[in-house]
Amino acid sequence: LRSAAGVWGGLVQAGGSLRLSCAASGFTFDDYAIGWFRQAPGKEREGVSCISSNDGTTYYADSVQGRFAISSDNAKNTVYLQMNSLKPEDTAVYYCAAVQGLPQLSLWNWYSYGMDYWGKGTQVTVSS
Prior knowledge:
The protein is mostly beta strands. The protein contains no helices and 11 strands.
């Protein structure tokens, strides 16, 4: 998995927006859940959001619900995470990941150790 931030990188002010992308190569997104985890120093890794490649259903952690939006372009094997109304507490390293056959998207947060693929972390810093 290859991940990237928007044109302004991962540095934004509180209330701002940023889009992350995650592209897969070497495999297709068929029957996969793809999304992001994040981890801040001294904090537990948190499942942020994921999307089903099969039907486009989505999952969001409570902490980002209503502010983030995940979408996918299966033709490009790419998933996007649009992050809006960013808060300083969103500051973390964001990791895209994918797992095949996740039985329920809401389990994303608990399956971090079972991911089939991981991308490199992207530092997102939100200033107050």
